């Protein structure tokens, strides 16, 4: 069971959860530095790497399971990047918008909780088959 | 009755474990000379249930991956799909247990 | 320690904003102080915030280069006098601190600006508290996998 990639979906969810946790740290760092001069906000990119590794999700769900089992998650890393796209800098060179950061914090927390629930459901399905 | 024709399209791990258990338990049925008509219909309906369970589990797993990628953001839909998959799997497992129990009892009666 | 670095980041933000609130309160309290301990009028103070850099040990620099590092929070490097804003002079020859021309030098503290900064610091403090609570809830939720 273990060599056939039975934990494939759990590994995908786990890497998404790790990226969500890292994003929480990055957003907290942005909030802490809301008044620091010349600080530029940071963010985490993850979904694009996972999407390219999986080849997207399409309607033929039978092949999705095979792709999930064979995906190589070691190349899918969360990337912390500096966001310079916000051109409306304040006079002290800081581009952190506290309302945006609060919104991102809340939505990231909900995503993390949903991923944790999905992982619990996966494990409970496995356990119910094992009796 | 050819179980392999039904199971050749199933690739969910949980469902394959269940079908393997059923296959192993009923492997000796083909050699029995007694007609098992009523048991046959019960078994067929159970296999029909397995297809439904498989599709609901796959829908839940696709929703999980979509949520991780950010394609889907509806958390209630994700929870509903998970619960549907969980309940149908638990129901199928309960049916499996009852079918195996009934089969063993029938085999014990043919003495 | 990287185990709960998110809590350290939010705690550093809270400390920095609280210190900023203290400095603003001192400015407001001294809005009319024309003579301090050394005889000069009170000069408006402001905090200088910088991002906390990681320590220069090889392991931390290597880890930062290997994978994304979220940061270490913020710290107050110094509390400086505001020398760019002009002090206000008021003509009042009867004041004991008037100079030879009869002008009294008042501190360069603008009450409206200080109150605005105070609101801003309070809001930033609350945002840091929210981030801390969110991190704590996420860490507790993570322990519930499989239960």
Automatic annotation (TrEMBL), chain A:
Residues 22-40 form the Flagellar basal body rod protein N-terminal domain. GO terms for biological process: bacterial-type flagellum-dependent swarming motility. Structural component of flagellum, the bacterial motility apparatus. Part of the rod structure of flagellar basal body. Its main location: other. The basal body constitutes a major portion of the flagellar organelle and consists of a number of rings mounted on a central rod. InterPro entries: Flag_bb_rod_N, Flagellar_basal_body_rod_CS, FlgB. One of its GO terms (cellular component) is bacterial-type flagellum basal body, rod. It is found in: Bacterial flagellum basal body. It comes from the Bacteria. Belongs to the flagella basal body rod proteins family. It holds the Pfam family Flg_bb_rod. It comes from [Clostridium] fimetarium. Keywords: Bacterial flagellum, Cell projection, Cilium, Flagellum. This is Flagellar basal body rod protein FlgB.
